[in-house]
Every structure is written in structure tokens, then in C-alpha cells.
Request: fold
Amino acid sequence: MHIHRFEKVWLALALVFILGLISTIAYGAVGPGIEMIDAEGGTVDPQNLDETEFADPGVEQVGEDEYEVYVVAKQFSFEPGTPANGVIRVPANSEVTFYVTSQDVVHGFEVVGTNLNTMAIPGQVSKMTVEFGDAATYGIVCNEYCGAAHHAMEGRIVVVPESEYEGPGATNATSGNETTTNASVAAAQQVAGSATEVTA
Amino acid sequence: MSTETAGEDDEHFDPIGTATLIGIYMAIVVLMWIFTYFIEFLGRGLTIVG
Reply:
């Protein structure tokens, strides 16, 4: 079969391009160590979270610079995360493993502007480990429509300087936005409530 | 016209313009992939490592 030399060049370039795509993914796994969230987190009974490790969600220290954070997503807040429930506080330069689940419907757990993003599924635990660097404040949003106050479902991760970190128990730090957030959630829940009444 | 004759004609047909255009498209796609993966994705701060 006769193949034009331009076509031969094109085929070669296309193959090199495909190899390039595969190589970058391989580099991502080996170099920066990017992992995918899988079924490793296991399952829980969403009706009985009180009998699981999610009974008292929050931050736990498990090593010198290693922490675990158990987060329950529910209509319409993260516990912990949403200021009313206490924001998530971790020290700078730490390795943090998040365990996220939902107690009611499917929610999202997205740390805004980062690659930390998972679904919070009733019965399923999403496990993900990240390395926090310098002190910063990150926003968390629910990115799966979960009900009338979905738009108000948000939270915060506060990465505090190591010298100012008071331990995993100190999650009740509040911020000026708390009132606003609570008010908007309450308003939205009221809307949801009246909508239900109308339907009934 | 037989297939053989068409094959011979092929040798005199060098679509340089088309080849150049495809080459430019290819370069754009490669640059966009590098930008998307290395700058937009890897440059987004927190990344799941475990």
C-alpha cells in the first residue's frame, strides 16, 4: 500500500503526541504524587453515623505533623467546616487526611481553587490526603445540588501558623461572617419550609 | 484511471499549505495541554497525594 510521506509524518507525530499525554499523567503520579480518590475509605451506615468514627467529627492528631479530619456533610452544612459548627483548623506544614461522608443526600466537598474536591455520598467515605504549606484560609463549598439552601452550604479550612496552633480541640474559632452565614442558611431553610407547606 | 496511476500522481502532490496548517494546529494543542496540565492543574495549590 502506498502511503504519502506527509501521512507518514502525521502518523508519527500523532503517536508521539499520544505518548506525550500518557507520559504527563505518569509524571503526575510519580513526580507530584497525585492520587485518585477510590473506595479505600470504605462504607458506613448513614442512618447510624453515631456508631461510627463520624460520631464526633472533627480534627484528630495522629502523628507529629499528621492529622485526620472527619467531616459529615448534611443539609446544609459541613460538620466541622461551616462556622456555626466550628471551622476546620489545622497547623501549617502538616499532612492532613480527610474522611468525608454524608448523612442525608449527595453533597460535594470542594476546597475552592484547589484540586481537593470530592463527592460526599451517604454510606460511602471519601478518603484523601493533602499537604498544607503556609498559613492560609480556604473556602469549602458544596458543589452538588442538595436542596433549597444548597447555595448557602459552605465552610472554611483555616491553616494556622504552627506556633499559634492550639491543638485539634480548638475548632470553635469564629469569624465575622458567621452571622451572615447562619442568617442566610436560616432564611433558606425557611424558604424550604414554606415550600414544603405549599406542596402539602 | 487505474489505482497504480493514481499512486504515481500522488508523488507530485505535496499539500504544503495543509501540512503547515495541521502543524500549527498540532503545536497549539501541545501548548494548550502543557498549559492545562502543568500550570492550571498542578499549579492549583492543594493536591490529593494519598
